[in-house]
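Sat 14:20. Reprocessing the chain from the morning session after the first attempt stalled halfway. Input below, unchanged.
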Amino acid sequence: MFVVIRFRVEESAQAEFIGRLETAVEVLSRQKGFVAARTGRNADDPELLALSMEWLNIGSYRRALSPYEVKLAAVPLLSQAIDEPTAYDDLDEFAPHR
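Finished this time. Tokens:
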């Protein structure tokens, strides 16, 4: 499953925010079931940032939000996200055949 979390952050505040985002991802990456993460800035709206994470399953993702270190480092940042659904089940994977 994968998670897409979007944030609206003024450009002047992005350097500090990205530092906090990197810390949150580092803490989350140590949780069981974590597969990968990537962050990005929208090409058309530079105040729109995104965090995409891949987890083994929805249970792994939800349990990963419970440890104390995650509550300190990640949850405050994640609470600044745009209020919208974030967790997606995989329907299919598209990749070029080699």
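The domain at 2-88 is CATH 3.30.70.100 (Alpha-Beta Plaits).
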